[in-house]
Amino acid sequence: MIVVTGASKGLGRAIADRLHTNGHEVHGVARSEILNAEFSSSVCDVTSPDALQAFAKKLKLEKKQLLGLVNAAGIASMNLAVTTTSKVTRNIIETNLLGSIQTCQLLAPLMYRNKKGSIINFSTIAVPLGLKGESIYVASKAGVEGFTRSFAREAGDFGVRVNCIAPGPIKTDLIAGVSGASIDKIVQQQILRKMFSPSDISDLVELLFDPKADSISGQILNVGGF
Fold first, then answer.
1. pLDDT above 70 as % of the chain
2. Could you tell me which residues are beta bridge partners of residue 68?
């Protein structure tokens, strides 16, 4: 089974749908109920250690063979650092960084038992670009990249691979409030000067779950190129 967080909408939903359609057993996780899904799901806030512990315990009791985790839950708030409220700052860090860390802490041991598995975290091309007005968001995702590199070494001792996908702009609700001019400016700094669709990212996720990718771990994969 593959667990996908943030599976109620956007990129997480696209990834969960694709994996399910192509024959994987998928369990989606989100803060609110996941509607009209063909895969199984649970309501679980990744920022809540108690909720994650209960979810992990449930999987263990059901003796589910966990083979994959996709940490797609994430939020963004484009604003200058000095005008971003402490509440928003905490919410971004807790969701993007702590959410990914805590999910790995509680679910990776279920893969360790089987001596195999693949974990995929998410960052953004905004990290290497150091985009103005995204400093808090960039800080949270830079943390995810650092965690991925180090955690991959720990998980590798148990046969589990850990990688991070860092896309350029994707056509989802996450960038709905960003101007076209701002998006185009980012795209022009990529090696491949185009926007990407959730389907493009789902392709890469599937590749990382394929046995042919068994030699790939600890990598930050920039979609679009930098």
1. 96
2. 2, 118
